[in-house]
Structure formats: structure tokens, C-alpha cells
Description:
Elements: H1 9-20, E1 26-34, E2 39-49, H2 54-59, E3 66-71, E4 74-75, E5 81-82, E6 85-90, H3 97-118, E7 124-128, H4 137-142
Parallel strand pairs: 6-7
Antiparallel strand pairs: 1-2, 1-3, 3-6, 4-5
Amino acid sequence: QSQTIDIPDELKQGLRKFRLARREGIAAFIAKVNKRELVIEEDTRLENISRDLEELIEELPESSPRFVVMAWIHEHSDGRKSYPLILINWTPSGSETGLMTLHASAFNLFQNLVVIAANRTVHQSIEIRDGEEGLTFDAIDALCT
């Protein structure tokens, strides 16, 4: 069975390095479908994202889908901290139809790649269609409870 979208080794290695990195704050690994090459490729990485997620929102295009893997910090009511992986499927409503179709067909492939590369499951995934209004600290943190 052939895949429509390929995953280069560089992306696998990049995800592995992202997951294994030691960090103090919230971080994000952003990937996109390259429509011309039919591959998923790394777009950018962000470290020490503020809790208002402003830096992340600025990096995400208003009219093009992205896959975002977040290394999240969740503080439990008893003071414990956990570090779940959150997968955000950024699918703004103004995206080009052809690219959205490729992106949607690659979502499960990318999710499985994250699980393999990170050697752990994704805690939760969320689809954001309504832009920055849907991407808030409270929305992401609620996934972890």
C-alpha cells in the first residue's frame, strides 16, 4: 500500500530530538505538508512559549493547515506536574481545499509518527478550526485533566 504523503528521515529525527530535549517551559514542533513535494516537513520549533500562547499563534498561518506537537506542562491540583504531548491539528477555515485534503489525509500518518518518534503516546489531540480564538491555554490545559 502506498502513501500519498511521505515522511522524510529528517522529520523523524527532528521529532525525536524535540521529544528528548530537556526544557523548562512549553515548547512546540510545527510541521506542514509540502504540496509540491508531497512530504511532511518541519516548519519551525518554539521553546519557552508563554502561557498565553501568543508566540505560537503568531507562527501559525491564518490560511494554511499545520500539525503542532506541544510539549505541555500541566500542574495538577495537588501540586504535581505532568508533561503530556498534545497534538494540535491546525485547520483554519480559509485554507485552500486541495491542501486541506492532503493535510487531512496525512493526519493519522503524522500522529503515528509522533508516537513512534517520541516513543510514547500522544496524550490528546485537538482540532482548531476557528483560529486563535480556539487556541487558548485553558482549552489545551483542559485536555490534560
